[in-house]
Amino acid sequence: MLQDIDIDLLELRFEKWDINFNESDESIKVTGALDNCSNELFELLKEICLVNKYNLTIELRNENKINVLVKKGGKKKKYFKMYTSGCFDIFHYGHLNILEKSKELCDYLIVGVSTDELIEKEKGKRPIIPFEERIKLVRAIKFVDEVIPQVDKNKQRIVDKYNIDAISVGDDWLGKFPKTSCPVEYFSYTENISSTIIKNTLQLL
């Protein structure tokens, strides 16, 4: 099984590469700079494959960095790459619910976190939690593969730039979400929980 691989030992041997095991879908993501040694990358993949007797799927993406996703062969997910976004000011279960459901539909989930400037422009006030803290929190969620700043509400720009196959959002946006060239998946809004409710309860507004 992929769990049998000693990730810590691999990171010591292949220190130029960032190696992460995702328990939710039993996959290993290997990330590194373009100028890293490609021979070393293939040696690393060989080590991963030798430990496992499963059929493995290797997906190679080449942008500003190399991402290799090694996972068990199995049921293909509905989308390869999805995008969702939010302020995530006071993170709560409703946020986690959308991220988890989005990851169930895709192999690679990109999350946009609104900058302080965008929130102030949209809502007339700065967020409670600063951008750098909010983006670190979202990066730590196991369902999230990549986090980017959301500097505006132009969803089509993100779709084009990152080759997004679908966008996910809460169903409170149904009928109000801007049109894009890709499908939009609506998830049920988590009742009785929102950042506004929490702020009101804590008397932060």
From TrEMBL:
One of its GO terms (molecular function) is nucleotidyltransferase activity. Keywords: Nucleotidyltransferase, Transferase. InterPro entries: Archaeal_FAD_synthase, Cyt_trans-like, Rossmann-like_a/b/a_fold. Pfam families: CTP_transf_like. Residues 84-179 form the Cytidyltransferase-like domain. Transmembrane segments: none annotated. PANTHER family: FAD SYNTHASE. This is Adenylyltransferase/cytidyltransferase family protein.
